[in-house]
Design brief:
single chain; alpha+beta; 41% helix; 32% strand
């Protein structure tokens, strides 16, 4: 009889973990996955907003997790790809 009682004590803990997984952990993982997909799809010509609030146009995509963003005519800054918060406008892929 004690085995059934011990199991009954763990059921609320299991339910709490399941609720936390579906309400906190799973949505965070989905958000992270979509952000990584957005960052990996960055191309030259995309208009982006960084987490610091800088709006600019991607001029060059470098392989080492870095992009070059033009914030004004002739003013280019280097930005880490993962700090891009949002892509405002996408460009069509270049044919060739």
């Amino acid at each position: 009889m004690e085995g059934g009682n011990a199991l009954a004590q763990f059921v609320p803990l299991i339910l709490i973990f399941a609720i936390m997984y579906f309400l906190l952990i799973r949505p965070q993982q989905k958000k992270l996955k979509s952000h990584q997909a957005m960052v990996s799809a960055l191309r030259r010509g995309d208009q982006v907003i960084t987490q610091g609030g800088i709006i600019g146009k991607v001029v060059k995509v470098k392989d080492d997790d870095e992009i070059e963003v033009e914030v004004a005519t002739g003013v280019k800054i280097r930005v880490v790809k993962s700090t891009v918060a949002q892509v405002l406008s996408k460009t069509e892929p270049a044919e060739g």
